[in-house]
Amino acid sequence: MAKDKDEGLIPEIRAPKTVERPGDRIFSGSARGAGVFILVMLAGVSAFLILEGYPALVADPAEIGLLDGDTFAQWVIPLVFGTLWAALIALIIAFPLAIGIALFISHYAPRRIAAPLGYIVDLLAAVPSVVYGLWGGTVLAPALQPSYAWLAENLSFIPFFAGPASGTGRTILTAAVVLAVMVLPIITAVSREVFLQTPVLYVEASLALGSTRWEMVRDVVLPVGRGGIISAAMLGLGRALGETLAVAMVLSATGVITVNLISSVNPSTIAANVALSFPEAYGLNVNALIASGLILFAITLVVNSIARWIIERRAEFSGAN
Amino acid sequence: MSMRIEIKDLNVYYGKFLAVEGVSMEIAPRSVTAFIGPSGCGKSTLIRTLNRMHEVIPGAYVDGEVLVDGNNLYASGVDPVSVRRQIGMVFQRPNPFPTMSIRDNVLAGVKLNNRRISKSDADELVEKSLRGANLWEEVKDRLDKPGSGISGGQQQRLCIARTIAVEPEVILMDEPCSALDPISTLAIEDLIEELKSEYTIVIVTHNMQQASRVSDMTAFFNIAGTGMPGKLIEYDTTEKMFSNPSVKATEDYVSGKFG
Amino acid sequence: MTSHSMTSPARNVFSAGRLQGYVPGLLLLTSLVLSWLLFTIFRPADEEFQINLILVGLVAIIFFGILLYAVSRKVEGQRRATDRLATLLVTIAFLAALTPLISLVIVVLTNGLVRFDGDFFTLSMRNVVGEGGGAAHAMIGTLLMTLAASAVSVPVGLLTAIYIVEYGSGKRLTRYITFFVDVMTGIPSIVAGLFAYSFFEIILGPGTRVGISGAAALTVLMIPIVVRSSEEMLRIVPNELREASFALGVPKWLTILKVVLPTSIAGITTGIMLAIARVMGETAPLLIAAGFSNDFNFNLFQDRMQSLPNFVYYSYVAQGSNPDAALNRAWAGALALILIVMILNLGARLITRFFAPKTGR
């Protein structure tokens, strides 16, 4: 019996069970079943990956030909580094550009062309990654190569540009640029939505005080949209981390840890490594590759969780409520 | 075709919160009863319990009885869907189905339930319902146009046509005119006057002049304070309620002293 | 006003201190000239040095930025100068985004058309070394695997979205489902491929690469997209429509089938088409799960199956004895792939534009 704060005891009345029609039961049952199916599938994904990846973690490293004498950790750490490093550079290139483009479409472009412009940027998102890889390897790499040569000649005192410059231009920097182009549309699309949703209230308040357009953007649009922008960036980061083809087709990798951006000695990413090694792999090598995929999965999970956490935190403070 | 409604000791709960307390009243067949009262007094909540629409909100339930011609709507084993086929409802904002033509909107109650109906019967029903809603002359040449392509007042009359096409006993109206312009409002008030010869009508309105124009009986609800349940304060003929009410609160509300 | 000074005459207190309209244009021209001069005068002694027009343009933009800011600051004040600079930067960002797109379009078109012939669409790569051959087997493979994936993803995804929006609000199961769908949207495509591979390895033995495995990988990627977009479209349907249907005595499942779904079907179709377009371009998971083949294969349950993106990938990565021929095939495949994806995208948007009913909000 529950107590009501004013009066005495109030009997717990349960809502009476209503009659359920068979049609409703079948339909809602199937709908629920579909939802459960998804949960089962996800559990399955994790389970199978762990099942197949685990043998590589416990086996004697000497038995895994792929490791070439290293332990599993020694083999996978440069890959993790390469994955994070490429994604980071891609994000550094893409993020400011994406914000600029989103601002351009939401606040600077003439109204009539703003929507088509948005579509065009979305078109970039629709291009399959294999086409980017093809473009990166055959067009971008040769185009950037002279710049690498120049950098190696003149700025080699900076560790990033230590050289010697790659002859083909297929370096991790090129791969990062391709990743940046791929990730750009996602960050732009999300940021654009965020900027368009800036409450008109505050925009007008700012303009009424005599702000220039830039000042209004700086003082209202960007701060209000900060949470959204960050989550857009994390989404882009997640995509960059998992991208396989672009890197596999553009990079000529040797699998070492280095911050040299322009030489022909480059770290590889987990995903690209799996793509390149898997077709010919057998036995425990397969397990090792799957184990590395599991690590990649874990990394992207963490990144996506952080993004979601940021969105939820900011949702309370967002002026757009 | 219309029936007497008896409400016996009805309490309406949203979860643990008591929204309306201890309502008892009798509504005569073929009459128009208005529920009036300030915002938040529970009149909309109450009218929704008369066709079990409140159950659409999870956690809402009632304690007490609602008898329509002696049959308790809340007896165990009663299917809310059947209840709603006998007791229709018109809402505050006109809501014709946008994917259907005017004709299909009128027939929606029949078609959505997969009931078979011959074309000639269907045509007859459409004309009858549209005439009943005073809309036939205006739309008879565009029955195949989408239901959302007509004016607000016409859309609301379309919703009324849709409701009477199901041939209910009772028609509930939850502030049907508050989203409409004065001319459409007048048209609907005239319509209510005509409909009452065939149906029992209960109408919620926050517009007291409308209540005094349109209804035979008026029920005044009030709430003691925020967080307190709404209660039925006085229920009497409209004439008495507006000229010489028995309860002071009623008189205050009706003369505009609050609400 | 025919004044030639840089500032307009103070006829109006609001128009004082502004740059005339032609000034930025003039400054841009000046920057281009300066930049070109710079490269001509200061060229290295190397005889073969070509003036890189792109570089000239880039340097010109830098000059322009500096000049514009300086001039504007002198005449209009610091706040307006910053504003102009910001506008310039934002516009440059946009043009920078256009550059790879334009480059891509030009390159794919020019290179892809070389082999965009009848052979390409009807032949496979069986017994082809060097010249000739086509991607027909790959297109069939893509079609089959995508269809199979859709056959599972669309019903499961749509039903789940219906559950989340119509039946499950507030329930705990819904929260789990929503959370895990979120997680699934972040699965890297190659991991989905590894999963499908592992799954079928346990069932059919190690080293199994088969079409249905590829379809399974695509399903894992497709379901979350379908769920998310369908969920959004269902939520947009105004509650009033559902209430109107209930008030007519229509049971819930019929309401969903005959009112909610028809109202949102345009948006849902768009979402599904976009999901298909996304998934058609996936290479990595199919590489792992479905393998590589030169032959036609119409059986999802037996043998490896080629897909169009994979065809492009392998043509590039294993160029064989005639690299030019291989590359030409790769580009033709890329062009075909882009065309299909673009048509799906455009089709999806047109459907929304023309078929979404006005819900009168």
Please describe what this structure looks like:
- The complex is a heterotrimer of chains A (321), B (259) and C (361).
- With 321 residues, chain A is mainly alpha-helical.
- Chain A has one domain (59-317): MetI-like fold, CATH 1.10.3720.10.
- Chain A contains eleven helices and two strands.
- In chain A, strands 1-2 form a two-stranded antiparallel sheet.
- In chain A, a hairpin with a 5-residue loop joins strand 1 (2-3) and strand 2.
- With 259 residues, chain B is α/β, with parallel strands linked by helices.
- Chain B has a domain at 5-93 and 171-254: Rossmann fold (3-Layer(aba) Sandwich), CATH 3.40.50.300.
- Chain B is built from eleven helices and ten strands.
- In chain B, a hairpin with a 2-residue loop joins strand 4 and strand 5 (71-72).
- The two termini of chain B are 36 Å apart.
- Chain C has two domains: 23-107, no CATH class; 121-355, MetI-like fold.
- Helix content of chain C is 71%, strand content 0%.
- Chain C is built from 13 helices and no strands.
- Chain C has helices spanning 23-41, 53-76, 78-112, 118-122, 136-167, 172-185, 189-204, 211-236, 239-247, 252-280, 284-289, 308-317, 323-355.
- Chain C is flat, with a radius of gyration of 29 Å.
- The two termini of chain C are 49 Å apart.
- Residues 1-5 of chain C have low confidence and may be disordered.
- Chains in contact: A-B, A-C, B-C.
- The A-B interface holds A 2, 10, 13, 15-19, 21 and B 13, 16, 55, 59-61, 63, 74, 76-81.
Secondary-structure element series of chain A? EEHHHHHHHHHHH
CATH T-level topology of the domain at 5-93 and 171-254 in chain B: Rossmann fold
Report the total helices of chain A.
Answer: 11
Which CATH class of the domain at 5-93 and 171-254 in chain B applies here? Alpha Beta
Tell me which CATH architecture of chain A applies here.
Orthogonal Bundle
- As residue ranges, the low-confidence spans of chain B are none
Number of domains of chain A: 1
Share of helix among residues of chain A?
A: over 70%
Structural class of chain B: alpha/beta
Give the number of DSSP strands of chain A.
2
Here the CATH topology of chain A equals MetI-like fold
Number of separate strands of chain B:
10
Quaternary organisation:
heterotrimer
> What structural class do you assign from the helix and strand content of chain A?
mainly alpha
The shape of chain A is flat
**Fraction of residues in β-strands of chain A:** under 5%
